Structure to design on (499 residues):
């Protein structure tokens, strides 16, 4: 019998009373390794009640103590890094190294959350009028909630609950139903770090559970990461219900390759950024724009890509793992077939990929098209698989026009030896995260994750100072104290008092 994933409500791991369970599979074998519950209404209401109650005491806990919980949590995550990565690899199919990277990028956010006292500092101005001072405080919102995708089951929950809780909020997490074991381990360690009962709750399920969070009046802010249609839906419904919402969505990330770039750097970076993690990264490079004579490198990129071998989570030579599900594999293979029909040239074909010893894995081999045009479905859609689309353009201006016309704006890169070309690109490109000779420019947690356009719905982004603002309210105080009210310290009463 496979393991039943618990809910975490009111400080306890409990088994759901639901009669609906979702299979969690190992994507390399299809073995059912666990079952995630579809939380009942009663369970979700208990989670909200507990989070509301815990907020009343947690917001009064001194900020330095809240920071210390994050310090202990960071140490525990590091101590259990390999164990979390093993769980993560078994349910996502990621290679062990990639799984460790997923956990590590989350640990870095917890480190940032441990700096919460200075992040919460407000502003002060003395004498805004004669004898009047103004100052501001940053106060928590209340109960916040997070809905996370399958592709980073450690990093993305850790983008959310540590900072929200460090700010003094309580938090309800609804992880992806496809890989709930990693978040369960993260929560177990959070409890061990000394987080008081009720500050974090975990419910499992899908749309019905998300709708509950979107409609529950006690929840003040919703963080979401996932696909575009779901992100748009969550943003609309959440804001209609007068909640604060940040929704991070899909992407189509372009890499611009100038002819003066370092060719070997371009090839190795492009290969890793396009098919690494089976292309299941919102910051994967899925379109390479070869400018001018750089187009001559396309066959060499294809030759290097063709050498890349996927493999199982426990194969140390594997470059990447399987796709998350048979449906995801089918979807990617359909796109590859569609690209051929649309007239793109298939230089490397990842369909019908086999990995020895794992006949049932959701394998798709590295895939590359050339001659892709912007009207093709393989260009217009986020394929979310190990597929690179190569396009040829005449100039940097032409490349900029293509990238800026694309509805997404998560990440982009330019490879060049020219500072002037890089400067022009970073300045004019309408994308929120830009790499210069760096293929996947994910900002570290003291910055924020700043996707633009169709890749993000909301105002304030994940982690960094922006997340602190997202998870808090600013209270501005204007104060006057009348000097005439100061007690007469020389009077007889005061003298007695001072004795
Ligand atoms: P998804 O949208 O299918 O699911 C994300 C979450 O939403 C899950 O918890 C799921 O249970 C819930 N959900 C699914 N359908 C729903 C519905 N109809 N109503 C309400 N909730 C629903 O996304 P996924 O497949 O898990 O993740 C991959 C997507 O996430 C890709 O598009 C990827 O680009 C995107 N992503 C974006 C970022 C970013 O920072 N921009 C980061 C990681 C992943």
């Amino acid at each position: 019998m496979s393991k039943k994933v618990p809910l975490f409500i009111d400080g306890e791991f409990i088994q759901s009373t639901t009669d609906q369970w979702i299979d969690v599979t190992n994507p390399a074998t299809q073995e059912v390794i666990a079952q995630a519950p579809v939380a009942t209404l009663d369970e979700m209401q208990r989670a909200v009640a507990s989070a509301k109650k815990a907020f009343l005491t947690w917001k009064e806990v001194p900020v330095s103590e809240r920071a210390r919980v994050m310090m202990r949590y960071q140490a525990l995550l590091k101590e259990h890094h390999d164990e979390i990565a093993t769980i993560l690899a078994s349910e996502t199919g990621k290679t062990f190294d990639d799984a460790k990277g997923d956990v590590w990028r989350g640990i870095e956010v917890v480190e940032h959350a441990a700096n919460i006292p200075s992040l919460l500092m407000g502003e002060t101005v003395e004498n805004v009028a004669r004898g009047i001072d103004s100052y501001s405080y940053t106060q928590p919102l209340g109960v916040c909630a997070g809905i996370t995708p399958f592709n980073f089951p450690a990093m993305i929950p850790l983008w959310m609950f540590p900072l929200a809780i460090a700010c003094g909020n309580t938090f309800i997490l609804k992880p992806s139903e496809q890989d709930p074991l990693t978040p369960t381990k993260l929560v177990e360690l959070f409890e061990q770090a000394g987080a008081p009962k009720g500050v974090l709750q975990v419910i499992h399920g899908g749309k019905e559970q998300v709708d509950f969070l979107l409609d529950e009046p006690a929840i003040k802010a919703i963080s979401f990461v996932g696909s575009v249609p779901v992100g748009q839906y969550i943003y609309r419904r959440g804001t209609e219900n007068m909640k604060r919402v940040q929704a991070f969505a899909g992407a189509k990330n372009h890499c611009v390759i100038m002819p003066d770039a370092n060719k070997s750097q371009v090839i190795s970076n492009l290969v890793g950024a396009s098919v690494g993690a089976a292309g299941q990264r919102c910051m994967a490079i899925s379109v390479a724009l070869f400018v001018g004579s750089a187009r001559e490198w396309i066959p060499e990129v294809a030759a290097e890509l063709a050498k890349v071998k996927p493999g199982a989570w426990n194969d140390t030579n594997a470059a990447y793992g399987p796709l998350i599900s048979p449906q995801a594999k089918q979807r990617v293979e359909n796109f590859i077939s569609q690209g051929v029909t649309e007239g793109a040239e298939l230089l490397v074909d990842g369909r019908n990929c086999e990995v020895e010893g794992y006949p049932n894995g959701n394998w798709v081999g590295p895939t590359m098209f050339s001659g892709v045009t912007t009207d093709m479905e393989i260009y217009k859609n986020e394929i979310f698989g190990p597929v690179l689309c190569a396009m040829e353009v005449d100039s940097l201006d032409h490349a900029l026009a293509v990238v800026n016309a694309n509805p997404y704006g998560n990440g982009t890169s330019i490879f060049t030896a020219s500072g002037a070309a890089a400067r022009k690109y970073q300045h004019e490109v309408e994308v929120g995260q830009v790499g210069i000779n760096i293929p996947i420019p994910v900002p570290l947690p003291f910055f924020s994750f700043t996707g633009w356009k169709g890749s993000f719905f909301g105002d304030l982004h994940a982690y960094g100072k922006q997340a602190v603002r997202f998870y808090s309210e600013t209270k501005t105080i204007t104060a006057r104290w009348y000097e005439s009210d100061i007690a007469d310290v020389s009077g007889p009463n005061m003298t007695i008092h001072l004795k």
About this structure: Residues 3-250+451-479 form a domain with the Aldehyde Dehydrogenase; Chain A, domain 1 fold (CATH 3.40.605.10). Residues 495-499 have pLDDT under 50 and may be disordered. The pocket of nicotinamide-adenine-dinucleotide is lined by residues 147-152, 174, 176-177, 206-207, 210, 225-227, 230, 233, 248-251, 282, 382, 384, 410, 449, 451, 455 (CB under 6 Å). The longest strand covers residues 132-140.
